[in-house]
Amino acid sequence: MIENNQLTIKFGGDGNIKVETLTEFLDNYKQLLYLINNELGYNPNDMVIEVSPPENGSFKIKLKSKYKDLILEKMGDLTVGTLVGLLILFATNATQNKTEEEIKQILEDKQIVDKELPKIIYNVSQNSGANQKIKQTFIIVNNDENVKDLKIEQEEREVININRTEFPKFIDQIDTQEIEELPESDILTDKATLIIKTIHFEGHAKWAFVFRGYPIKASIKDADFFERLKNEAFRKGDALKVTLSRKRNYDEDLQTYIIDQNSYVIEKVYEHISKSDNQNRLKFE
What we know:
Blueprint: E1 6-12, H1 19-39, E2 47-51, E3 58-65, H2 70-73, H3 75-91, H4 100-109, H5 117-125, H6 128-142, E4 149-154, E5 157-163, H7 167-173, E6 185-198, E7 207-211, E8 214-220, H8 223-228, E9 239-251, E10 256-259, E11 265-273
Parallel strand pairs: 8-11
Antiparallel strand pairs: 1-3, 1-4, 2-3, 4-5, 6-7, 6-9, 7-8, 9-10, 9-11
């Protein structure tokens, strides 16, 4: 059975690799996965990372939710898909100054057509911390003379295949690029689908929602939406398609942005989907 939430890492060569090569390489991938998971709005504690025993120089990394919630179960697929996209960008020397549309085209060239990935990969790729983590993995394999090549696979599809002779090129890649100073905080705004959990019809109290399987509370700035409350029924379990913004603060220790959980704001409500509507037609964003 093919699993989207699984990566296979292959260290090519005839001899045994150093134990430090494996442990340090996997630790950097673990940090990358946590970084991506944070960008998706999930709590790192919701994710379990499993590594298979070695088999012919191959190791499998698998992500899964701690919970049985089907929405959270998809977390592993999306997180691994984002990591795959980042690796492809890095391997094509395309980690900097790429638009979402350019990233989409690069992924499509690799037969990856998930509509959610370009936006997520764009946001993460702007974080120099992610690129530095990937660079570090090439430093690690380059320091082990027993590693002759590095292959990454997903769904039995080859993501990257890099010979040892090319490792130095990827190590130097970040150093030759100009890295802009990152702001201490910024506002991330994009379209999203929220499931209503708790409704407040009066005052300025925040509504409670489920966003990508994770509970949040958000204030609503859309005046037109409040007019709709007078004539339209809203219930727990209904879905809203919205423009959602939230503040991110840069963490120097982790070298990534952390979402301020108290900063979620719904700027505009585009569509209300009643709980009684055909649930099979609802596409989560």
